[in-house]
Each structure stands twice: as C-alpha cells, then as structure tokens.
Amino acid sequence: MKLSQKTVDQLKPPVGKADAIVFDDATPGLGVRFQGRTPRWIVQYRVNGRNRRVTLGPVAGIELKDARKRAGKILADARDGKDTQAEREQTRARASHTLGALLERYIERYAEREQRPSTLKETKRYLREDWKPLHVIPLASLTRADIANHAQEMAARAPTAGNRALTHLKAALTWGVKQGAIETNPALAVEVGGKETTRDRVLTPAELATIWNAADPATDYGRVIRLLMLTGQRREEVGAMRWSEIDSDKALWTLPGARTKNGRTHEVPLSAQALAVLASVPRRGSRDLLFGRGQGAFSGWSKSKEHLDQRAPLPPWRLHDIRHSVSTHMHEIGMAPHIVEAVINHVSGHKGGVAGRYNHAVYREQKTAALQRWGDWLESVVAGKPAAAAVVPFKAVGL
C-alpha cells in the first residue's frame, strides 16, 4: 500500500492479528507496526547479510513525510554497510557502562545492603549529587584527571564535603574493580582536594543558657535541642528516639547498635531533667518515634535551626557543637575522661584499639551519676548562676 497522511491517520490493525505491519510501497522497508495499543513507525533493512529492524517512534508523533525521510537515510546507510540498529545497541551498552550507572549499582547491590542508614544517606548524597557532572562518562574513558579536576572544584567550594565525596567515590570504584566493571580505580591516586579545619567550638555556659531558653519546649525541635544538651548524644540519635528504647522505671535510654555510629549498643542514663523533657512529649497513638511526623523521624533541621538562631542570635554555631560542649564542660567540672567518653559513646582512649577489645565495661552507675551531675550543672547555668558555682540540687521541672 502506498501510504498517504490521510490513510496513516485512519489505519487500523488487521482483524485478528496481535502483531502486524503495514508497509509503505513508496518507501520499501518503511511500515507501521501494530503491536499493543500504540502503532509505531519501523524500518526493515538488510545489512552485512542480516535482517534488521529499527523503531522510529509512535505514529502519532511523526508525520509520514518525516518518517520517509528518516527511513531513507537508514536505508542508504545500510547500502553503505552501516547498521543503524547495531549502533543503537552499542550506544545503549555504553550508557549502561557509565560512571553514573556503576555508582547506582554500587548503591543498590552494596551500600543498601551493608551500610547503616546514616552512612547510606551520605553515600547516596555524595555519589548521586556531588559526582553528577561525571555520571555520563563511560567507564572506559574515565581518567584520573577527570576525577582530580572535579575533586579540586568541590574542595574549593567546601573542603570537607569535597574530601568526603572523593572518599565515597574511591570506595565505589574499588567495588567496581572487584565486580569486573572497570579494570583499575582511577581515583586511588587522587589526593584530597582541600585542607579540613576543625569546626567544632565550645559553647560558653552563657551561650548554652541562651540556646536552652530559646528552644521552645512545646515543639519537637525545642525538646530535641534540650535533650541534646542534657545527654550529649548525636543529632540523628535524638531525632529518631523511640519509646521502645526508653525504660522510664530505670531512667534509661538504650540505643541499639543499628542506630549508633560505632555499631555498639549504648546505654544513656536519663537525669531527672531529661526525664522531665520526655514527660512533655505527647504520645501519638501507636507511633514509636517521639519526634517528627508520619513514618519518619524528626526532619527539617535547617529551617528549625534558622528559626532558633533568630530567637537566640549568637556567633555562628552548629548542632554538633552542643555535643562537643557537653564533653568539654563535663571534663572541666571534674568528671573522669573515661566516664565522659562512655557517656557520649566515643570509642577512643581506654576503649580504642586493643584496649577496647578487652574493656567491655558500660559504667552504668558512673554514667548515671555523671549525667545527673551534668543536668544539675546545666540547670544552675540556665538559672543564671555562675558556672563555677556549686552544683545545686534539681528542683524545677522546667529547668
């Protein structure tokens, strides 16, 4: 049949056939294929002794004259020995062997199975976002220079984040080598691009009092801030606190290893001040998480921090500075270093290396006394008393 635009628009699939092709006599090889609900233009040709078929696209999106023009080029190429379909297959194969494709396989087949949630979140962010400009590069063409140049650009903007992104890429490419996806790891010889500086600062007693008073105790974020100050634990650990982890009778919060940075179960004795904060958290049906909404833990850290900064204008600080400050001030008021380490679940010193293998003490009694003393000290500071003053007994629920 010699097709016209009118006949194309009116074409119907042959009765009783689930897969049929109506060819255009004016352009041998060009046809409309009826398969499924959407008719499509196809071109059949023979090249190098093989019958081949290429799909141009839906009939509704390509007019007859354009389909004939595209078919004519494919047929002319075939006469010259060029296989359009083979080139398309090679293009798809190359696309599946790009850096981006490898990083996705690494995330799916390794990171999601082996990494803790917090680490997995970082892995996804660094590999999917920070290395996105290089995702389209075929693995066979990926060079050390490609990686080094982009790493330097990232480090110029944010040294610490750039270095972390490079570390994650090295791990992914090393995995790729083991899987046979790439011959060598071109990132191994690339050095970190930026010099990192320690950003932790110690908040003064007056600053701690300012932050405490600015943290609205009627909000999730306000309660989280106060618990960070009272326990010295990490942001993600407090933000994802669960009722099932808390034993109110024993005044104990037990963090499972799956939720701690070092993978170890961690007991946090709860001071009277911490228990008072927890008592103000409303129960939400059968929801186990204390903070946040829906199925997730607390989120919206950035906006909440901005709001807190407006209420408590201080020199720049970040939430991790609270943990650093708790540790520092606990040392300053005379607590033993190994007990402070046990409180904040920091594996180093007496718990690091070989010593850590043989020292499994959890120091529950000592931690209980330390955190209650810390709560009393913080209460004293919040009440406006000099930091060096004697610690007063806990009296008020509101601290």
Describe the protein's topology.
Elements lengths: L4 H6 L8 E5 L6 E6 L4 E8 L2 E9 L5 H16 L4 H12 L3 H16 L2 H14 L13 H14 L1 H20 L26 H10 L5 H12 L3 H5 L6 E2 L4 E4 L10 E4 L2 H8 L21 H11 L8 H13 L4 H8 L8 H6 L5 H19 L17
Antiparallel strand pairs: 1-2, 2-3, 3-4, 5-6, 6-7
List keywords for this structure.
16 helices; alpha+beta; 4-stranded antiparallel beta sheet
Order of helices and strands: HEEEEHHHHHHHHHEEEHHHHHH
Biggest sheet architecture: 4 strands, antiparallel
Q: Taking Cα atoms only, what radius of gyration do you get, to the nearest Å?
A: 32 Å
Beta fraction: 5-15%
The overall average pLDDT, rounded, is 87
Secondary structure: number of strands: 7
Counting DSSP H or I runs of 4 or more residues, the number of helices is 16
- Structural class, please? alpha+beta
Inertia-based shape: elongated
Q: Ranges with pLDDT <50 over ≥5 residues?
A: 349-360, 392-399
* Helix percent band: 40-55%
> What is the terminal-to-terminal distance?
89 Å
Strand order of the largest sheet: 1-2-3-4
Please give a structural write-up:
It is built from 16 helices and 7 strands. A hairpin with a 6-residue loop joins β1 (19-23) and β2. α13 runs antiparallel to α14. The N and C termini lie far apart (89 Å). It has 399 residues and is of the alpha+beta class. It has helices spanning 5-10, 64-79, 84-95, 99-114, 117-130, 144-157, 159-178, 205-214, 220-231, 235-239, 272-279, 301-311, 320-332, 337-344, 353-358, 364-382, and strands at residues 19-23, 30-35, 40-47, 50-58, 246-247, 252-255, 266-269. The protein is 48% helix and 10% strand. The protein has a 4-stranded antiparallel β-sheet with strand order 1-2-3-4, covered by helices on one side. A 3-stranded antiparallel β-sheet has the order 5-6-7.
